[in-house]
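Before the break, one more example. Copy the sequence into your notebook; we will annotate it together after we see the structure.
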Amino acid sequence: MAIVEYDPYEYDLGEDERNRPPVKAFLLYEGNTYYPGEATEDLKCSADTVEELREEVSRRFEADQYDWWKIVQHSNMAIVAEGPEKNR
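Here is what the structure looks like once it is written out:
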């Protein structure tokens, strides 16, 4: 299975769906500054399974890319896994 990456500056995720990459079953939101709710800019990638995204989170945190993360089920937007900020 492949992870689909999103770049909010390359695609307008709120508009033309023809230019947007497909959204899979689970979404990964990440960021450096936490604030309530999920913003489009924080959507980094999606995958078919939670396990794929957990592996991606491990890779990104080892590279010190982001401070917090959430995995969200696309069908109902329920948070299925999340990590605390590293600096807390």
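The first strand starts at residue 4 and ends at 5. The longest helix spans residues 50-62. Try to locate both features in your own notes.
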